[in-house]
Amino acid sequence: MSLEIRSLGPAGRIARTFLHSKLTLLTIVASILLGLAALITLPREEEPQIQVPMIDISLAWPGAPVEQVERQLTAVVERQLSIIPGVEYLYSTTREDGALIIARFVVGGDPDQAWARVRTRLDEIAPSLPEGAAVASVSPRSIDDVPVLALTLWSSEDRGLDTGELRRVAAELAAEIRKADGVARVRILGGEPREVRVEPDPGRMTAAGLTLDQLLDVLRSSGLSLPAGEAAQREGWISLRAEASLASAEEIRSLPIAVRGGRPVRLSEIATVRDGPGEPTQYVLFAEGAGPRHPAVTIEVAKLPGVNAMSLTQGLHARVEALRPTLLGSGVRVTTTRDYGETARHKSDDLMFHLLLATLSVIVLIAVALGKRESLVVAIAIPVTLALTLFVYRFLGYTLNRVTLFALIFSIGILVDDAIVVVENIARHFRMKDGREPDRRVVEAVDEVGNPTVLATVTVIAAILPLAFVGGLMGPYMKPIPVGASFAMIFSLGVAFIVSPWAARRVLASRLRADGPAARGGGTPEGADGSSGDDAGGHEQAEGPLDRLYRRRMGRLLTDARSRNVFFATIALLFLAAVSLVAFRVVTVKMLPFDNKSEFEVLLDLPPGTPVERTLVAAEEVAARVAREPEVESHVIHAGLGAPVTFNGLVRHYDFRRDARFASIVVRLVEGSRRKAQSHAIARRVRPSLAEIA
Length: 694
Hints:
- There is one protein chain.
- By secondary structure, the protein is of the alpha+beta class.
- It has 23 helices and 17 strands.
- The strands form 4 sheets. Strands 5, 6, 12, 13, 14, 15, 16 and 17 form an 8-stranded antiparallel beta sheet that branches. The chain has a 4-stranded antiparallel beta sheet with strand order 2-3-1-4, covered by helices on one side. It has a 3-stranded antiparallel beta sheet with strand order 8-7-11.
């Protein structure tokens, strides 16, 4: 159908081009399919991916006191690292025999490039370090180092499994978990690794003509590690870890140490060899609610970048269940004490529900205000816009998390504006009794509001987009909101000019047929003077109740000075009242609301020199108080080692809390739908009672 209308703007020309084009329907179908594909393939995570390059530099200087290490090693290395481009902060912790330096680069930098710069600089200054000092390790840190899954293995008292046996089972299970695709790192917390203790007999060693140094050299050359070092040797025994091909204590006993009189002297002839778990230096205890605590071992699993946390944890749970009969048996119980994949699923499902609810609310509101047919047009426009926005998220490498979903929900309130303006004006033109053809009504209606709609869209984007350039940690964290909302506004503008006219032409055209000949052709399309029919009297239509109310109120404000003054004074008072809510702390201003987590952590720092057993007693006392809260499902005590870190703990390096005086209690709460209080409120509620214990 040929449609010639003079002086059309860009919006009108776009609407005319796609009004009967087969590409319009193809665009709708393709957009929905792309959105569904993105929704299925988008990785679901707890938090957005943030590139915060952090490098841990471990320095070693055996035998040096802490003051000397700080002055001659730590300070020197810090000065050299500070001149590396991109380094934003340097943190250091100095101790006897070494130090730890944390280099944090600017947010958004390339982690690989940051590591290479640090490694190169350390290699350059290595010759100038004090004699005996060296760089022990250079390790990058990222948000993917936060474990997404924590499995706690424990055994009830009637089963009688000790921590050594639990760790052996955990080691076998961890080996199976490492085989899964997407797993980056698996670490075992708790229990004591298998240890072989060698107790030399001085008399037999003298008779064989051997010294302790010769014995140590032979053991080292056999591939056995000696973690206990000189302290253990002074006690008269040597602690070994069987990390070589020697798998059993019997093989170690048969190890030849020397040759005397043409025959080999074996280790069993000069020493007693004992196989078993080492001396306890750390403790992990698990309890369900306020029940008894059991010795436990925790397996933490971190994922590779970009891997779907939900799919990974579901697959690992299935693998554990498959191994349960053969590997775990009936004596070992496995409790999931962290599952970020499951929490990500719950949050994304909850936000998707609210996204659907917001969409339906907008459609119902339009149905009430404009009509059912008009709401159907908007019901087509919103899913198309959201589907294209999801596809852009997938294309840009974002994940489906609470921030990206919040951006979509936030966008609904503004992206429907374009569709509503266009649809409302098309509906208004269809109610006019001027005899224009349906196609002309649609095109002229779109063209009439085209320029203001473009201007409004650009204004909203200009107000939101600067948030994408905020610096620091908050910038990348919040970036999906301005990016998603801006793309959603652009798509909504295109949908308003392409899809909405196409749908309105087909949905609203039947209204003309119902109104009879006067609506279809009872008048002339143009006035006698050649002007557009918009000025003809046939365009007049009866005002609705809302129109009459608006005209009456606005007319009074325009003509009555006293009414204007009262109106503006009321607006000013309401504004001041709203601001005062912040000033009087009735409303708390935060960038994001507190997240309702499934866990929180209690950290205990006892005085230096506190033995791990005393630390454990203090942790159990605190845990007993926390366990009395009705929302607590279980808790895990880690004494002498750090618990699986959260994102906050990663930045603060809580996994380095390996001293005997440190303890942490990971408190797991019941599912959010089964409790009224949020995790932050629960933590604040128990804090005063814990402070009394401390």
